[in-house]
Here is the input.
Amino acid sequence: MQKSKYDDPVFFAKYSQMNRSKEGLAGAGEWEDLQKILPSFSGKTVLDLGCGYGWHCIYAAEHGAAHVTGVDLSEKMLEVAREKTQFSQVEYQRAAIEEADFAPESFDVVFSSLAFHYVKDYPTLVEKVRSWLKPGGDFVFSVEHPIFTAYGSQDWYYDENGNILHFPVDNYYYEGERKANFLGEDVGKYHRTLTTYLDTLLTGGFALRRVVEAKPPEHMQDLPGMKDELRRPMMLLVAANKM
Here is the structure.
């Protein structure tokens, strides 16, 4: 089985101090936009790929999901998820997203939050998701925006006094692995273009329902650094249906 960066004690400790780790969905800048494009969960079977702390699994259960399966590679993430989850219809499995395997037409909804940029083979993943979904099923995911992932460092370009000048974008069409700096640690992520994210769905048996370049809500813009998030897109949100 692959190893997860999130099982590194130092990295996980840093991640646990992020707003989205401490405050849950309310601490995620993209949540208000993401919530608007989610389908109804009532009576549905749901799969969450890269479930992390389980916040979205819990949300689905709170909103009437009949059964929720959360998959994550990190044992540390899953330990927290199991501690937080009080719903018997939620189960967690440890696996890499690429290695997950389910019977055809097992789910009404497949969801993923900020995980697919860790996956090397996106087209194959889309094929698998389509096979797991029931006809007309919902596929909703968020990823880091291609503008954010293109250059690789995921940091601003600064002047000699440390003031932000702009966000660097380079090598956009050269898809593949980037070494990003996240929480002061080197993390491998995969860059792909907006065309790849969307056209793979359109040519792979999905109909696009919503595409949103998420931005932090007004009430978060007083938090340190949040106003700078309006200078370039960081999150891409996509909702599609299996045709």
